[in-house]
Design brief:
With 208 residues, the chain is mainly α. The protein contains three helices and two strands; from the N terminus they run H-H-E-H-E. It folds into two domains: 36 residues; 128 residues, Pectate Lyase C-like (3 Solenoid), CATH 2.160.20. 20% of the residues lie in helices and 4% in strands. A two-stranded parallel sheet has the order 1-2.
Length: 208
């Protein structure tokens, strides 16, 4: 067994070593703070870190939706200009009554020369004693129109509808009756037809 003195001496030495180490550490810290001494850290131990990265499989592209196709109807329908019986005075003043709706209008004894009635609907209208010289009735509907005593000098009635139209005492000098059906015309005499400038019955291809 060690003597008490030996034990005591060992403890004192141990304490001195400890105090010495503490003082050394404190000194190093102070010197490091002053910048005179570089404190070397303990060598680090490299640790291999394995990182597993999951690579997602490329997703299949979604099927492209078919582009919607918009079909636009570019067909345009031209609606003929139509005037009513309320606007017939304006139609006459402008001398352009094409496609006009003048059904049953009374034009008796009016001066209507050089008026364009082409493709107009004049069914049942009255032109009694009216001046229609040089007026145009191409492809107009003249059904049941009363031309009694009217002057139709040089009027053009090519391809017009004359069913039940009355030409009693009408002046047809130089008028053009081309491609018309006169079988249902009322009170049209041979003397009147002799005054017509051009005449061909309906169905003839050539009409001079």
């Amino acid at each position: 067994m060690k003597s008490l003195r030996t034990v005591f001496v060992q403890r004192v030495l141990t304490q001195r070593v400890f105090v010495h180490r503490v003082l050394v550490v404190i000194g190093l810290v102070v010197l490091a703070a002053c910048g005179d001494v570089k404190v070397m850290s303990e060598p680090s131990v490299d640790v291999a870190v394995t990182t597993t990265v999951e690579i997602a499989a490329p997703s299949e592209p979604a099927p492209a939706e078919p582009a919607s196709t918009t079909t636009m109807d570019t067909t345009t329908t031209t609606v003929p200009v139509t005037t009513t019986t309320v606007l017939d005075v304006v139609c006459i003043k402008t001398t352009t009554c094409q496609y006009a709706n003048l059904v049953g209008v009374d034009f008796s004894r009016l001066k209507l020369d050089f008026i364009n009635f082409s493709v107009a609907n004049l069914g049942g209208a009255s032109f009694v004693g009216a001046n229609l010289n040089n007026s145009i009735f191409i492809r107009a509907d003249l059904s049941a129109v009363n031309f009694e005593g009217a002057s139709l000098k040089n009027a053009d009635m090519t391809a017009s509808v004359l069913t039940a139209a009355s030409f009693k005492d009408a002046n047809l000098e130089g008028a053009v009756l081309c491609d018309v059906d006169l079988t249902a015309v009322l009170e049209l005499t041979k003397a009147q037809l002799d005054q017509v400038k051009k005449f061909k019955t309906k169905g003839k291809v050539y009409c001079p």
